[in-house]
Amino acid sequence: MSGAIEAFVIVSGPDDPDRNIFHMSLRIAFAASSAPLAQAAKASLTRRYGDHTEAGADVIVALGGDGFMLTTLHRTQDLPAPVYGMNRGTVGFLMNEYSEHGLEERLAAAEEEVINPLSMKAETNEGQIHHALAINEVSLLRAGPQAARLQISVDGKVRMSELVCDGALVATPAGSTAYNYSAHGPILPIGSDVLALTAMAAFRPRRWRGALLPKTAQVTFDVLDAEKRPVMAEADSRAVRDVVRVDIRSEPSIAHKVLFDPGHGLEERLIREQFV
Questions:
Q1: Is there a catalytic annotation at residue 51?
Q2: Which residue out of 66, 78, 236, 261 is catalytically annotated?
Q3: What is its EC number (predicted)?
Q4: Residue 180, annotated ligand binder?
Q5: pLDDT, position 93
Q6: CATH number for the domain including 67?
Q7: Is 178 assigned to a binding site?
Q8: Each residue of 194-232: pLDDT tens digit?
Q9: Which of 87, 94, 133, 261 could disulfide-link to 117, CB 3.0 to 4.6 Å?
Q10: In a domain? residue 178
Q11: 193 assigned to a ligand binding site
Q12: How many domains, the chain?
């Protein structure tokens, strides 16, 4: 693994009833979604491996689906411990396969991916400023019966004076297989320094599907005719209503460390997703 966890392994003696279990000096904190399946998994794993506080843990194990994984990453972004997810939800793109056995060995062998989130600054029609971070994407969505009218600028230069659409989003490579892919946006290699700008149901220009931008770019959406055509902004499902301007950029100062079983990291998953 890329230096995220160091631990030693001690094999139990022959008289130990758990002689086939490896015990390590690894401090694990378990976090689970409210789903009964995830809560039952946490109870079972805690009995087997113990449980530490997240602040004092070497690694945090998140039990749930992708939504809970995103919540855990946001909540623990200031802690040094990486996060290893096990799927007790539905899709589980960011999660590893669930198993109660051999967890310490899996953690010791895990590979680390580093994800930089997007930073969103959203201004409402009342002049309020909202800040949020998004690991997957920041999206703008029409909030009324009429299509949204958006002006798009990149690094302060207007690139599209009017986009009439149901919405638009900016996605990271890690989030490119989520909402972005459903909106027919491209899947981005995890190591690429690129962001995807994707339109949803574009009416004018009718066939415009978006653009690929350097990771360093700042994207600004200005909402045109905001009172008649209200728009909401979302950063990983955290919504701000009645926005008039949204600035989006990558946030390199924040690095989410996510652990995956060897051969099942984000790079492999992103490639595999394109051949399904």
A1: no
A2: 66
A3: 2.7.1.23
A4: yes
A5: 82
A6: 3.40.50.10330
A7: yes
A8: 999 999 999 999 888 899 999 999 999 999 999 999 999
A9: 133
A10: yes
A11: no
A12: 2
